[in-house]
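Session log. Operator J.P. requested a structure for one protein chain; no other inputs attached. Running the standard single-chain path with token output.
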Amino acid sequence: MAFGDGEWIHFTGTGYLIRLNAGNHPVLRLRQLGLSKACRCLVTSLMKRHGLTYLHIDALGDVLPGFATFDW
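Structure written below.
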């Protein structure tokens, strides 16, 4: 049975909660959905360094040092 992106990407009001263990090759899927290279690098780094399975990207969250940020 195929599921949509709602199975692993959830809008939270000010950002997105991403279940990185919900499928195979999550970073490739994020690329297909149009996520920027900078954001995909952040996701990859956090997955490798901390073994993340969930990531909450939030407009009101803290800025992580050492990663690209954008003033939208």
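Operator note: Helices lie at 26-32, 37-50.
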